[in-house]
């Protein structure tokens, strides 16, 4: 059977070439966007390669349609040939722009592109296997492959050249597109010579395609894609040119108005341009500077160095250095210079030079060095101890006077920490002073004991001053002197001031000091201590009955008996009268503390014989333990006093521990109260939101904003615990206003995010009802966040009706005038009556969860709910049932006509982020 003689329709052949030209031009435009874009580069590269792949395939397919033959194709293979064209060109483009080595990228990408195009061609030929048997002439096939790879490589070379700005003209791009269209078309028609088509008369009848319709369809798709690509490219190019123009104006403004001098040199070192600051700096005008080299005004001694730096800059390395120049009037200036390579189309074309006059700075630095030398001489000849301490705590300088005062040479101290020879007990205080410098950046005075090299401690008074450099602490200057004699004299005075004159034991002042220190040490070492409050029962009776002499003897004897029961390391102090305190510095078990208290009680009740008088006394003791009963002195003292009070209340002559239950209750409450006072300012409150559902319409109706409080130490505090404390401490109004503002702000944020104005229900404290300025505050927040009337709802509890009912009504009407809805919570469990309900301007009635939890099982709860629903309908209220947690509850409420519900069946209260994800996004 004779092979089919191929003949073509000239008009379709021309159209196929035109398709390739249009596609190539569009791809060039998109590729230029890729090379010039800073963002979305992957988008432009992909668009360019896909556009070219579709165009090449369309040219091939249209070229085959130009045969004078019946056109029947295998649709699957046709699609595969399209994928082969797009994927091969896309991969080739990606390789071309990812590969850094120039020769390799042309070989790799040219081969991938050529093989892909020719593969597409031969796959396309096989699509006619339904009516033709395709025979390949291997030599011509090989030749067509080589031809395709060669033309693809040449195309990529031209493609690369056309990315330079100077080739980005319509003429150049059009010419390149025409060349590429002809080249691709030639690959197709060369490939056609490598095949022989033999009619397959045995083929089954297949659906014949209308030639003209296919041609027009393919051409239309290509032209549509090309048109879209060109429009997008043109729009992007216009925006890029606008941005480039804006950047050029910004650069010119920066160049002209920069306070630093700017010079632009060409590669020969000639001045091309200079700004006004450069003219003022050198004294030369721009016309005088143009055409001169930098050596014309640089100090001769700096010529070779600057020439070397300039050459390095031309190699691509920025440099910063100092140089001297001669001003036009002859005086010398010192400049800080920064040379930066000037790039033009990826190549270094000159050097930008930025210069700053540092003549005065260098002069000041010289003066500072002279001053430093003067200060050094003063320090080395001073009798005071002078040190420089770096911010890391190491000594960088020590004056020679250290040798005389402390026995150490300066070299023995330099490099060591500032507290290396400080008494261990004084280091903590010194460390605090050191931290004070960082926090307050102020001078400080500190006294401490320092170790003399000969083996004893001496007292030092040090004045430390932070030295700042541009607002940053550089180091400390410490001036110190010995004060050992003064401290010894002060210690004598202190003993007189800190000990009880009658008994010789520490007084209240010294006891507090020791207690404070012991607490600090216990905190540092995770230790324990016990604090006793005790008194001598019947002392007043003895003093009044037998006289003050006998009373004094009793106090002295009391001290002696107590001291026999405690260790030497423990402290017994007299606070005044018959009040005493004991500090047990550490103990093994609580039972040991109890045994000590018991011994004291037993010893004290032994009969006394003083001044011929016999009598019996007892002692009552209160005990507080660290850290269980308190972490600071005031707390421990208060708790020991409370425990002593309990001992007296229970009949005296006994001891009593401060109980854990009482400690926990008092401590927790105090901590929460303290935290609440700062909760608004420190943002420890936050809101969560629980959806309210319209179960009759099956949609979300809004959310209820619920206040939550996280204590910085305790953690999350239940509302039932912290809200009463807010009311007790008089901060409920402030908290309520914070809640309202946060909810209003959140609604505005949701509106901006596209969720619309979400209806929010806010719980209102009864205390704000008495605030005459509250409506004005609400109006202010509504104006600030542009809240539309009808989108916010305040929820009051029935408890508010206990107060002035007229005031409550007035408040409700004012809120209604502002467009704020009113809902009434806890319906049926509080103080409301039908009369109150019918007169109140409310919008919703909320049925308490206590009636919901047992429905539909409990008949009484059902009766109450049905009655409230019926009442609400007749009074014109909507009803919200809270606490819905089961499907059975939901179905029952739906059947009874309830409109709104909320509860864990739908959702727990959620943070704003979670409710956006779980609920609000579903409503957009």
UniProtKB/TrEMBL annotation:
A Pfam family this protein belongs to?
PAS_3
The GGDEF domain covers 527-660
- Where is each MHYT domain found? 8-198
Domain annotation PAC: ranges: 319-370, 444-495
All copies of domain PAS, residue ranges: 247-317, 371-441
Q: Which GO terms describe its cellular component?
A: membrane
Identify the NCBIfam families for this entry: GGDEF (TIGR00254), sensory_box (TIGR00229)
Write down what this protein is called.
Answer: PAS domain S-box protein
């Amino acid at each position: 059977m004779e092979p089919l003689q191929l003949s073509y329709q000239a008009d379709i052949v021309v159209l196929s070439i035109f398709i390739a030209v249009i596609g190539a031009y569009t791809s060039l435009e998109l590729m230029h966007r890729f090379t010039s874009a800073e963002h979305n580069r992957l988008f432009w590269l992909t668009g360019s390669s896909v556009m070219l792949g579709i165009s090449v395939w369309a040219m091939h397919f249209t070229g085959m349609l130009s045969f004078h033959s019946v056109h029947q194709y295998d649709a699957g293979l046709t699609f595969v040939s399209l994928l082969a064209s797009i994927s091969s060109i896309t991969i080739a483009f990606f390789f071309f722009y990812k590969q850094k080595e120039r020769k390799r990228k042309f070989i790799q990408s040219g081969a991938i592109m050529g093989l892909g195009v020719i593969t597409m061609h031969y796959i396309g030929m096989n699509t006619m296997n339904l009516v033709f048997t395709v025979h390949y002439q291997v030599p011509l096939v090989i030749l067509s492959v080589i031809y395709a790879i060669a033309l693809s490589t040449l195309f990529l070379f031209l493609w690369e050249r056309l990315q330079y700005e100077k080739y980005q003209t319509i003429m150049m791009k059009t010419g390149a597109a025409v060349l590429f269209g002809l080249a691709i078309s030639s690959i197709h028609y060369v490939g056609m010579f490598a095949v022989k088509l033999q009619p397959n008369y045995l083929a089954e009848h297949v659906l014949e395609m209308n030639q003209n319709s296919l041609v027009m369809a393919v051409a239309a798709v290509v032209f549509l894609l090309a048109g879209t690509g060109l429009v997008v490219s043109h729009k992007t190019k216009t925006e890029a040119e606008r941005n480039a123009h804006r950047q050029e104006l910004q650069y010119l403004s920066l160049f002209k108005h920069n306070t630093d001098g700017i010079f632009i040199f060409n590669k020969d070192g000639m001045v091309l341009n200079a700004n006004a600051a450069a003219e003022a700096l050198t004294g030369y005008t721009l016309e005088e500077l143009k055409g001169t080299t930098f050596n014309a005004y640089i100090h001769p001694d700096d010529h070779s160095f600057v020439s070397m730096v300039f050459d390095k800059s031309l190699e691509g390395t920025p440099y910063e250095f100092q140089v001297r120049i001669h001003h036009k009037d002859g005086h010398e200036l010192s400049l800080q210079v920064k040379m930066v390579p000037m790039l033009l189309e990826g190549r270094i074309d000159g050097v930008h030079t930025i210069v700053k006059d540092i003549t005065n700075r260098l002069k000041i630095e010289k003066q500072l060095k002279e001053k430093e030398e003067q200060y050094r001489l003063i320090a080395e000849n001073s009798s005071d101890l002078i040190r420089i301490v770096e911010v890391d705590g190491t000594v960088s300088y020590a004056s020679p006077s250290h040798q005389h005062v402390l026995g150490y040479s300066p070299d023995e101290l330099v490099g060591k920490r500032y507290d290396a020879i400080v008494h261990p007990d004084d280091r903590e205080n010194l460390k605090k002073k050191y931290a004070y410098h960082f926090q307050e950046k102020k001078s400080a005075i500190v006294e401490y004991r320092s170790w003399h090299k000969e083996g004893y401690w001496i007292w030092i008074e040090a004045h430390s001053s932070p030295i700042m450099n541009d607002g940053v602490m550089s180091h400390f200057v410490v001036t110190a002197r010995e004060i050992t004699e003064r401290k010894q004299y002060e210690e004598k005075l202190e003993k007189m001031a800190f000990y009880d004159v009658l008994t010789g034991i520490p007084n209240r002042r010294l006891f507090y000091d020791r207690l404070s220190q012991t607490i600090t040490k216990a905190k540092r070492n995770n230790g324990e201590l016990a604090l006793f409050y005790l008194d001598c029962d019947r002392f007043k009776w003895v003093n009044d009955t037998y006289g003050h002499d006998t009373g004094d003897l009793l106090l002295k004897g009391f001290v002696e008996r107590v001291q026999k029961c405690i260790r030497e390391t423990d402290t017994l102090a007299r606070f005044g009268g018959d009040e005493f305190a004991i500090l047990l510095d550490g103990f093994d078990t609580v039972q040991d503390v109890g045994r000590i208290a018991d011994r004291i009680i037993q010893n004290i009740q032994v009969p006394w014989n003083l001044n011929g008088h016999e009598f019996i006394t007892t002692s009552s003791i209160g005990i507080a333990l660290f850290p269980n009963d308190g972490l600071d002195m005031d707390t421990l003292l208060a708790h020991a006093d409370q425990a002593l009070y309990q001992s007296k209340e229970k009949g005296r002559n006994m001891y009593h521990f401060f109980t854990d239950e009482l400690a926990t209750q008092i401590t927790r409450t105090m901590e929460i109260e303290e935290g609440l006072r700062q909760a608004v300012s420190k943002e420890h409150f936050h809101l969560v939101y629980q959806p309210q559902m319209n179960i009759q319409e099956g949609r979300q109706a809004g959310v209820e904003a619920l206040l939550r409080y996280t204590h910085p130490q305790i953690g999350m505090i239940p509302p039932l615990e912290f809200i009463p404390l807010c009311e007790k401490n008089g901060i409920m109004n402030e908290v309520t206003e914070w809640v309202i503002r946060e909810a209003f702000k959140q609604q505005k944020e949701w509106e901006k995010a596209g969720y619309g104005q979400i209806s929010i229900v806010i719980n209102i404290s009864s205390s704000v009802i008495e605030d005459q300025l509250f409506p004005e505050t609400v109006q202010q927040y509504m104006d600030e966040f542009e809240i539309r009337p009808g989108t916010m709802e305040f929820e009051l509890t029935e408890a508010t009706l206990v107060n002035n009912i007229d005031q409550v009504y007035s408040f409700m009407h004012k809120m209604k005038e502002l467009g704020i809805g009113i809902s009434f919570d806890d319906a049926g469990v509080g103080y409301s009556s039908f009369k109150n309900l019918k007169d109140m301007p409310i919008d919703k009635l909320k049925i308490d969860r206590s009636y919901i939890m047992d429905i539909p099982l409990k008949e009484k709860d059902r009766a109450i709910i049905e009655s409230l629903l019926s009442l609400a309908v007749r009074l014109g209220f909507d009803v919200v049932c809270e606490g819905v947690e089961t499907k059975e509850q939901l179905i029952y409420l739906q059947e009874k006509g309830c409109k709104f519900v909320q509860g864990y069946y739908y959702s727990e209260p959620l943070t704003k982020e979670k409710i956006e994800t779980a609920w609000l996004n579903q409503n957009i």
